[in-house]
Specification:
InterPro entries: CheY-like_superfamily, OmpR/PhoB-type_DNA-bd, Response_regulator, Sig_transdc_resp-reg_C-effctor, Sig_transdc_resp-reg_receiver, WalR-like, WH-like_DNA-bd_sf. Keywords: DNA-binding, Phosphoprotein, Transcription, Transcription regulation, Two-component regulatory system. The strands form 3 sheets. Strands 2-1-3-4-5 form a 5-stranded parallel sheet, sandwiched between helices. The N and C termini lie far apart (44 Å). The protein has 2 domains: 123 residues, Response regulator (Rossmann fold), CATH 3.40.50.2300; 98 residues, Orthogonal Bundle (Arc Repressor Mutant, subunit A). It is built from 8 helices and 11 strands. Helix content is 42%, strand content 20%.
Length: 230
């Protein structure tokens, strides 16, 4: 069965262009021009991945609201913001809301297709047979790569696909510093430093909400990040 991708974009030329390109790659595509149309459709059926513009008609932050609705319906569906707004504030806001990626419209079509394919590869790992390396248990942290579940002190933490694999890359080698490049390689993603920093901050925040004393994810300035052993 082909993957179903939703495009939420108010510009008809852009919407039709990318819908056509994705269909040629074998994806099923559904398109929406307004936040209201997208939200009504998502409440009935979720796509396998969503590509969302931030500004939708007269709603300058309409895409953020779409992202929030999607995250309330699914913690793991991949969400990509695809927008002309190229600034750190919007990037950080988008990632904090749970998006897996933030791309600007000046990137090439092959680049967008590659990022979509990478997100699908990560979600497909859920269906692979489990083996011992899928399980991480260090201190209070437990991770199951097959089921994409995380718990801290036996309390569940809900992470997005990107957050999960970034944490997995760090925790798998507890005590070892992982550079930003290594994080990208391990989690099969290509993003800039700001995006990685935003994901790490969001992961930390989720742990701190459960445990105010959480301090296991350490920033090693100039080098990267590591999971501190207990």
């Amino acid at each position: 069965m082909s993957k179903r991708i939703a495009i939420v974009e108010d510009d008809p030329a852009i919407r039709d262009n990318y819908a056509s390109a994705l269909q040629k790659q074998g994806y099923e595509v559904v398109s929406y021009a307004t936040r209201q149309d997208a939200e009504a459709a998502f409440s009935q059926r979720l796509p396998d991945l969503a590509v969302v513009d931030i500004g939708l008609n007269d709603e300058i932050d309409g895409g953020f609201l779409v992202c929030q609705q999607l995250r309330s319906l699914s913690k793991t569906i991949p969400i990509i913001f695809f927008t002309a707004r190229d600034n750190d504030y919007d990037t950080i806001c988008g990632l904090r809301m749970g998006a897996d990626d933030y791309l600007t419209k000046d990137i090439s079509l092959p680049h967008l297709l590659a990022r979509i394919a990478a997100l699908f590869r990560r979600t497909e790992l859920l269906n692979q047979p489990q083996n011992p390396t899928d399980l991480i248990h260090t201190g209070w942290l437990k991770m199951d790569a097959n089921r994409m579940t995380v718990s801290w002190n036996d309390k569940s933490i809900e992470l997005t696909v990107t957050e999960f694999w970034m944490l997995h890359a760090i925790a798998k080698y507890a005590g070892h510093v992982k550079s930003r490049q290594q994080l990208m390689d391990e989690s099969k993603m290509v993003v800039d430093d700001t995006t990685i920093t935003s994901h790490i901050k969001r992961i930390r925040k989720k742990f701190v909400e459960l445990d105010p004393n959480f301090d296991r994810i350490e920033t090693v300035y100039g080098m990267g990040y590591r999971w501190k052993s207990a």
